[in-house]
Amino acid sequence: MGQERSAGRAWAPWTATVLLVIAGVLYSAWVAEFFLDTGLDPAVSFLSELDAADQPYRHFFSTADLLTGIMLIAAAALGLTAFMRRRLTITGWIAIGIFGAATIADSQLPIECVAANDPSCPVEPSGLFPQLHHIHALTSTIAVFAVFTAMIAFTAAAYRYRTLPLLRTMGLTVLAVTSLATAWLMIADNLPGSSGLGIAQRIQVSGMSAYLVVLGLAVRSRRVPLTG
């Protein structure tokens, strides 16, 4: 019975790796803006503006987010049912699932317009980001908190449980860079001018994408049983 269960779950690491790596790649779909005429300046625009309701390529970017979310929810479900169940890893997988759900919501609840391109687009001030007057702000905030929770939980688990060695090297580095970019983003939002807000957010999101890929590879090269 034990051998049958082990054989039945042999596909789990590969499946989780594929789901997480694909999700990481899809979450990087924003790089297509460098090849498409979006009319937005990457140095000052927010990524949420790429799939604003009035943008020409919104369906491309929103579909990428939708598929990312689906992949992440599937990976989270697999992680919670087939892998080691300990507090930090459970927290990590739940956070991955929430990140996926929030990303799906992001894709389905875009901002209506881009103020820089449309004079009639309403602009309301915010204490965090200029576009946070829309429900999209809530889903985006949840997504950011969720992915950071997952990154911290899995990195901590890699040290505490002496597993997922890739997260103790590449994962920790990606987490550090992403955290610095986030600090830049939050500080720059309270300074005059753009202060490279768009660049900071793109580095931040690149870090999130990279961590998903690293996590996927780490799951495949883990040094512990699937359960325990």
Structure description:
- Pfam families: DUF998.
- This is DUF998 domain-containing protein.
- It comes from Rhodococcus sovatensis.
- InterPro entries: DUF998 (IPR009339).
- Keywords: Membrane, Transmembrane, Transmembrane helix.
- The chain is an all-alpha fold and 228 residues long.
- It has one domain.
- The protein is built from seven helices and no strands.
- Helix 3 runs antiparallel to helix 4 and helix 6 runs antiparallel to helix 7.
- The longest helix is centred in the middle third of the chain and has 26 residues.
- The radius of gyration is 19 Å and the shape is globular.
Q: How far from one another are the termini? A: 17 Å
Strand content: under 5%
Number of domains: 1
Judged by helices, strands and strand pairing, the structural class is: mainly alpha
Helix coverage percent: 55-70%
Sheet of most strands: none
Rough outline:
globular
Total strand segments: 0
Low-pLDDT residue spans: 1-8, 124-132, 223-228
Q: Could you tell me the radius of gyration in angstroms?
A: 19 Å
What is the N-to-C order of secondary-structure elements (H for helix, E for strand)?
HHHHHHH
The averaged pLDDT comes out at 84
Please tally the helical runs, counting DSSP H or I stretches of 4 or more residues. 7
